[in-house]
Design brief:
The complex is a heterodimer of chains A (about 290) and B (about 300). Chain A has 2 domains: about 50 residues, no CATH class; about 210 residues, MetI-like fold (Orthogonal Bundle), CATH 1.10.3720. Helices cover about 70% and strands about 0% of the residues of chain A. The longest helix of chain A is centred in the first third of the chain and has 32 residues. Chain A is globular, with a radius of gyration of 24 Å. Chain A starts with 6 loop residues before the first helix and ends in a 6-residue tail after the last helix. Chain B contains 14 helices and 2 strands; from the N terminus they run H-H-E-E-H-H-H-H-H-H-H-H-H-H-H-H. Chain B has one domain: MetI-like (MetI-like fold, Orthogonal Bundle). Chain B has a two-stranded antiparallel sheet. Classes of the chains: A mainly alpha (about 290), B mainly alpha (about 300). Chains A and B meet through helix 1, helix 4, helix 5, helix 6 and helix 7 of A and helix 1, helix 2, helix 4, helix 5 and helix 6 of B.
Chain lengths: ~290, ~300
Amino acid sequence: MHFRMSTPGKIIMYIFLVLIVIITLVPLVYTAGASVKTNFEIAQGGIKPFPDHPTLDNFKQVWGMNSVGLSNNATYADYTKNSVIVSLMTVCFVVFFTSMSAYCFQRGNFPGRDILYWIFMGTMFVAAGSVTMFPLMQITSKLGLNNRLGVAIVQFSTAGASNLFLTMGYLKTISKDMDDAARIDGCSFFSIWWRIILPLSKPILATIALMSFRGSWNNYLMPMLMLTKRSEWTTLVVAVVKLQSTGGSGATQYNLMMAGTMLAAMPMVILFLIMNKMFVQGITQGAVKG
Amino acid sequence: MAKRKREQKLGTVATIQSYFMIAGSVTGLILFVVIPLGWIVSFMLVKYKGYGTMTYVGLENFIRVFQRSPKYWLAVKNTFIFAFGKLAVEIPLALVLAFLLTRDIKGQSFFRTMYFMPSMVSVAVIGVIFSFMFNSASGVVNAFMNLFGGASINWFGDGVHAMLVLMIASIWQNFGINMLFFMTGIQSISAEMYEAAAIDGASNTRQFFTITIPLLGPVLQMVLMNAVLGSLKVTDLVLTLTNGRPNGKTEVMMTYIYKYFFQQDGGNMQKQYGYGAALTVVTAVMLTLVTLVYLRATKKSSEIY
């Protein structure tokens, strides 16, 4: 795009842009620094982000440590595993069911289609926020779904409408001539989805898969309140927040807290740096049209 | 509809297959979205502590919300202060950055990646990070203040400072997302507009105010609405950063209601499901009103949906 600016103007602009980058990085840099300090070094304060002798002991300790306030034998390694399991299950549910139902709503013509569609869309606008957590918790524990599978199902269900909306938008761009050709060749309604639509909608499914993975990995309230059956199923983010109250005497062990924080935050940051373009696409698609 | 005609040929087998294919999504929606909403509505007229008997109390819960709940209304006030305080910084910042980054500048994708990075981190974890950075004894923020000759501040000691920390954390997390939305919007504005303006001698500042802002209208409206609603629903950040401390001065609507259901405030508050449900309904109606008033005030928004 055409851009004219005087040299001093440009310098000021770049200083501004870099300043914002620094502000953005400060919390992450100090988190990384504190995670390789001893608690004594952190308590001394000061503005030095990294210690003279970085140590990985905090990570080792957290990795093999049991969470405060949870009566189980699980360690942060297990909590990490739980996060991975729950996130992957969520992604599977989202991709599989969203793709199928988006196809039915967009291409199908069954009685009740429009009503069901408007129920889906309507729930997107009900602004109850996180306060339906309590009844949600009641329902899942009655159904015996107060486990990792349950969290995945609920995460898929509560995000269902917006994913459906996104995927349907994408299906509109796939020509219906494809369906017709397949139908003439003897494909049923279901096998058109399986053979034609599913492979063709890979780009949008990859996007919602990535966004769902991020959402699930970062989720706090749902896994915290729902995983009541066995506390060793706790996810990483929930366990990391519990590190805020480590130390029986009330003193927080900041070194462990920040090592845990790194464990929870870094996988997403690294995933983002690798798949930057797809995340950007996922965020902007659907939210802004044109 | 002409389109409908072709669809009608699908037949009974297709209909049956459709029902099986949507069964998963529809069951999920009914069980975990519709029924919980119904639960809230059905509990708003009763009194129930989670054990013992459930008594029907009519509109008593609502009378209590409107007449005897100063703490709830304080939380409502806090929520609006939080939302509008932080958006007053976040939105202009995002807008200016988007404007600069859509210009032909060096390192565009580097800057974009950096600004967007914080939104990858869990909100709850961001709360942990900022509670560490702003802690009064060894926090790095106070260390910087001391370095520049200022005195240490007990950030979580009074309402104003604690609210400020919440806002800073939230701005840090969200400005990148809003910047991305704005960038998409600006990129759809024709480059010729800017070129014509530049030939006529319009400065960058002038281009920003006479081209970018007006033409970004619909996108700006939508981003603002999402940002306002998102901020009014803030929950996780408050729970992990201040949890309403000190003394309820940073309590927001969602965390206040949450405590009536889950009783996590050291047992200060009793579980009161009926009252909590009434609070939820009042809050949801309030949020819906904000949306409606907003949509009314910005007529053009129908163009985006």
